[in-house]
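Sanity check

After download, print the first record. It should look like this:
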Amino acid sequence: MPVEWQPVRQSRTHELVLQSIEEQVFAGKLRAGDRLPPERELAPVFGVSRSALREALRVLETIGVLVAQPGRGPDSGARIVRNPDDALGRLLRLHFALGSYGLHDVMEARVALERSSFAAAARHAVERDLDEADAVVHRMSQPGILPEEFNELDTQFHVMVASSSGNALTSTLTSAVRESVRPLILRALEEVDDWSATQEHLNGQHAELLRLVRTGRGDEAADLAETHIRGFHGTLVDEERTGAGDGTGGDDGPGGQR
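Expected C-alpha cells:
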C-alpha cells in the first residue's frame, strides 16, 4: 500500500518550550512555589536561545502561572505561581473588545455564575466576609460618590460574595466576567439621566442581596441577583441589539457578535 503522508505541525521555538514546561506541570513535577533554573542554565537544557526562552516565560507570566523577578538575589528568577484572576480578566476584556463575545453572552454567563454564588454564599459565607461586603455597600451609598468609584466598588461587592461562596473557581470566573464589561458598565453609569436615583436603586438591591445572604435565604438571593443583573446589564444588551449608544448600527462594535 502507498504511504499516506500527513502534514506535521510547525511550532515556533518558544511554543516547544511552553509545551515542555506544561508537561512538567501536568506530571506534577512543577508545582506552585517552585523556582525555575536561571535562564543561563535552562536555555541549554531546552536547546534554545535565551530570547526564545524569555518569550515562553513572558507568555506564562501573562497567563498568570509564572512571576519573574529580575536581579541576582535569593528572590530573583522565575517562580511558578497561582494567579488566575487578573490573567483571566485581562483575556476576557480583550476578547470582549474584539467581539468574540456579545453582551448577551456575558449577561447570561453572569446570571448563571452569580445565581450560583449568591445561593452558595447563603450557606457558606462567614460573618467576617459579609461584614466586609457590608462595608463596601455602605461606601456605595455615600452621597456624592461618582460613577467611577461606584463601579469599582460594585465589582468588589460581587466578587466578594462569589469569594465567600466557598468555590474558588466560581469566584475567579465571576471576577473575570464582571471585569470584562466593567468599562462598558462605567460608560452606561456615566450616561444615566438621574445618577442619584440610579445609585440609590442599584445599591438598594445590593443591600437586600446581602440581607438575604445573611439570613440564609439563598434561593431568594439567587432570584434577586438575576433581577439585578438583567436590570442594568439588560439595558446594555438592548442597546447592543438596536445599535443605540455606540454608533455602530448593531453587531460590529465592542462586544458585538461575530
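If your output differs, re-run the checksum step. Summary of this record's structure: Residues 245-258 have pLDDT under 50 and may be disordered.
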